[in-house]
Write a structure and sequence with these properties.
heterodimer, A: alpha/beta, Rossmann fold, 8-stranded mixed β-sheet, 8 strands, 54% helix, 14% strand, B: mainly alpha, 0% strand
Chain lengths: 323, 98
């Protein structure tokens, strides 16, 4: 498995639980592990019975395991505040009001949340040198996956902007004939500088995701979840991201042979249907099924986690990045 | 006034006049044209950055907002110009000073 492992899947399939179990497993294997939750519902807190924030905090009772919950909304606000601060340094107050509308607009568009989340992803990946393994528990929307497929697109877009800006600054330099001074120069143009910075960030993200990240899809043995996973695999493949395997969660256990009451019959039929779907998953997906986890009733939190860790058969050794 | 100083005064005047002619006929129009071109390119750049100001959603507007503090005046002028511009050719002929 790569250093960065992303758990994804439809809402409610049990991503958080599986991701947490994997985190615990890695920590027990002696790796410094960071568990990053990006789900706005933040159920990591429920799993461990401890609250987390935007900074990595050691998880009580688990050596070598830290957790954090990303807050994209806070990141959007921070981004906006920073721009406003830079603005009050640079710009006369009369113009600030005119620009405020544009800034508001840029931070209220539907993409802002995703962009902020992506920024935080990159921050975490950049500053994760203290950890051997970083486990991401992604939010259920398809948005996250699409987002991770984006760095190439964004990078080339930013690159085009930079090219255009270069062109116009170059013309401004040429227009400065005789004693007149150019309105902008290529050497010290803050715009080109910022665009270059952004381009490098996307480049970094693209490289890390392609070389050091694995995706694990969590699904349940039901038709909707299977269809969604098929789409997700397709999408990830198009983005050249590697899918390490599938975890089938919440599979109904088999009843005892002697149980013939309503409950036993129901469970037996259900078990049968799910086993058939499980067979389909094995046959139709070209990615390996790395774990099949049975549904459990009446267990919760760390108890459930311990049970799952024992069953989860995901590799924990950190592979060196493929280059 | 000696002949010598009259000649040099005459030459000085001539030089100023010639420079003016050169400036008016060559230098200034060239400067204006290039600068117009630079402004047009900047307009394209600004549009690519802030298309959402005109209702076209852009995946990079969150990132380009970071540039606003450094583009403040250009942005404000650009926005006003684009909202107010009456025709596309209007600006193209400006350097001929009809």
């Amino acid at each position: 498995m790569d250093r960065f492992v992303f758990f994804g899947g439809k809402g409610g399939v049990g991503k958080t639980t599986v991701a947490s179990a994997y985190g615990v497993q890695c920590a027990r294997a002696g790796q410094q592990t960071l568990l990053v939750s990006t789900d706005p519902a933040h159920s990591t807190a429920d799993v461990f019975g401890q609250s987390f924030d935007d900074d990595p905090t050691p998880v009580e009772g688990y050596d070598g395991l830290s957790a954090m919950e990303l807050d994209p909304d806070a990141e959007v606000d921070r981004h906006m505040r920073e721009i406003r601060r830079a603005m009050s340094d640079q710009v006369s107050p009369a113009i600030v009001n005119e620009l405020d509308r544009q800034i508001e607009l840029a931070h209220r568009t539907p993409g802002a949340y995703e962009a902020a989340l992506f920024d935080r992803f990159i921050d975490v990946m950049r500053s994760s040198d203290d950890y051997d393994r970083v486990v991401f528990d992604t939010s259920p929307t398809g948005g996250t996956l699409r987002l991770l497929a984006l760095p190439d697109l964004l990078e080339s877009w930013v690159d085009r902007l930079r090219q255009k800006r270069r062109e116009s600054v170059d013309l401004f330099e040429k227009a400065a004939i005789g004693d007149s001074e150019a309105r902008a120069t290529l050497d010290e143009d803050p715009i080109i500088e910022r665009l270059t910075e952004r381009k490098e960030t996307f480049d970094f993200a693209g490289r890390v995701l392609a070389e050091q990240a694995t995706f694990v899809l969590v699904l349940n043995p039901d038709d909707l979840s299977i269809a969604e996973s098929r789409r997700a695999i397709e999408e990830l493949r198009e983005a050249d991201l590697s899918v390490g395997g599938l975890v089938v969660n919440k599979v109904a256990p088999a009843p005892e042979a002697g149980e013939t009451g309503t409950g036993g019959t129901y469970l037996r039929e259900r078990r049968q249907a799910e086993q058939a779907r499980l067979g389909r998953i094995h046959a139709e997906f070209d990615r390996p099924v790395v774990a099949v986890l049975e549904r459990r009733a009446g267990v919760d939190g760390t108890e459930l986690l311990d049970a799952l860790v024992a069953e989860l058969d995901l590799e924990t050794a950190v592979e060196p990045p493929v280059t | 006034m000696s002949l010598e100083s009259r000649i040099s005064a005459y030459l000085e005047g001539l030089e100023e006049w010639l420079h003016g002619l050169y400036h008016g006929m060559v230098e200034h129009p060239a400067h204006e044209k290039i600068e117009k071109e630079a402004e047009d390119t900047t307009d394209v750049f600004l549009f690519a950055c802030f298309a959402d100001a005109f209702g076209i959603p852009s995946p990079v507007s969150y990132y380009t907002a970071e540039l606003l503090p450094y583009l403040a005046e250009e942005f404000v002028q650009w926005e006003r110009r684009l909202w107010d511009r009456e025709s596309l050719v209007e600006r193209k002929g400006q350097q001929y000073h009809f």
